[in-house]
Amino acid sequence: MKIEQYFEQIGQQARAASRHMARATRGDKDRALAAIATAMKQQRDSILAANAKDMAAGKASGLDAALLDRLELTVGRFDDMIEGLEQVAALADPVGEISNLKYRPSGIQIGHMRVPLGVIGIIYESRPNVTIDAAALCLKSGNAAILRGGSEAIHSNRAIAACISEGLIAAGLPGTAVQVIDTTDRAAVGELISRPEYVDVIVPRGGKGLIERISRDARVPVIKHLDGNCHVYIDDQADFDKAMAIAINAKTHRYGTCNTMETLLVAAAIADKILPPLAAVYAEKGVELRGCPASRALVAGMKEASEQDWHEEYLAPILAVKIVAGLDAAMDHIAQYSSAHTESIVTENWTRARRFLAEVDSSSVMVNASTRFADGFEYGLGAEIGISTDKIHARGPVGLEGLTSQKWVVLGDGHVRG
């Protein structure tokens, strides 16, 4: 079957399933999640065996260690997938919630009802656990889903997809409510992102190259972030101990995440007091510093920062450092170089903190907290499908509510407009 015909079939099935999912109750959806978890437990050995095939093929094809690590399903990661299904089932169902209901002078009542988006296409690389995470969130939010995992995880994804279909059918929901594209043909991605008659929104999860391609070529709305160039600004009215703890955690807690600090901005008035001790801790942890001339004058051995360093998402133990005159200079730097992901100010001056919150235009803005908190679980969303830096209905960590929209509802009792 040609890829166009294959996707036509998948798209029609997803659209039909989305109408069924829109009327599914919370009980229906939670039963499906429980049934998927049961199927996964029963098929544990076959899923892990399928993953072993993918791992062997990945090693044979020369996948690097980082990709192999993301691809591998250990017993612990398998158990995490089951736990994730249970956590999503425990979340409140946003669908059908009516808010802001009020009377108009005409006597009608108007309000907003939260509704599913419809069909969500999710494109991701390597990690087979994303298959179950994405399926669970789309299912709970009343959407149908078309999932396109990386070709390197095809055996794992097929095995997981069979459990998802089995669980949906067992709960009385269409097995086609979640479909995993069963081909490694790259043309499938082109079909998925260019068929608005079947797909309502695309969520890409992967490297910058993938997301740039999807953003450029998609004819369907995209929820995305390209990179996470996150900043921490240490104000001259910061508490020293708080600033040390936040600047160290924001960079060294984990290096390969999109909410890791990549640029440290320090007010000139306190730079000579806080930069040297910070640099000493970074050196102990193996973090390479690249700084402006003023920073390099205070820290021996600091490398010179290039213009590109201010734009960079390192995802590595490398940190750009710049001394700035004060709050306005810090916000100017963030406005010029930030990827609009997450920024934090460390200060005891709440007038400045409020200005930072109001004027910094990123999806998460923080006061006296590490950028590492920019995460759906930490925000109380239970789980997230990704992080959006776009200025659309979903901004920042995207959980169940971000996978829904709102429509106006009007309640009358025979009202007519005069």
Quickly count the helices: 14
Shape: globular
Strand order of the largest sheet: 10-9-11-8-7-12-13
In terms of quaternary structure, the protein is single chain
Q: What is the number of beta strands? A: 16
Helix and strand sequence: HHHHHEEEHEHEHEHEHEHEHEEHEHEEEE
Indicate the low-confidence ranges by residue numbers. Answer: none
Structural class: alpha/beta
Q: What portion of residues belong to β-strands?
A: 15-25%
Q: What number is the mean pLDDT?
A: 95
Assign a percent range to the helix content.
40-55%
Largest sheet: 7 strands, parallel
Distance between the termini: 58 Å
Radius of gyration from CA coordinates: 24 Å
Report on the structure:
The chain has a seven-stranded parallel sheet, sandwiched between helices. Strands 5-4-3-6 form a four-stranded parallel sheet, sandwiched between helices. It is 42% helix and 19% strand. The N and C termini lie far apart (58 Å). The chain contains 14 helices and 16 strands. With 418 residues, the chain is an alpha/beta fold. The mean pLDDT is 95.
Quick overview of this protein structure:
With 418 residues, the chain is of the alpha/beta class.
Give a topology summary.
Layout: H1 3-22, H2 26-42, H3 44-61, H4 65-71, H5 75-90, E1 98-103, E2 109-116, E3 119-124, H6 129-140, E4 144-148, H7 154-170, E5 178-180, H8 187-192, E6 201-205, H9 208-217, E7 230-234, H10 240-252, E8 261-267, H11 271-284, E9 288-291, H12 293-298, E10 303-304, E11 318-324, H13 327-337, E12 342-346, H14 350-359, E13 364-367, E14 386-388, E15 396-398, E16 404-411
Parallel strand pairs: 3-4, 3-6, 4-5, 7-8, 7-12, 8-11, 9-10, 9-11, 12-13
Antiparallel strand pairs: 1-2, 2-16, 14-15
Helix pairs in contact: 2-5, 2-7, 3-7, 5-6, 10-11
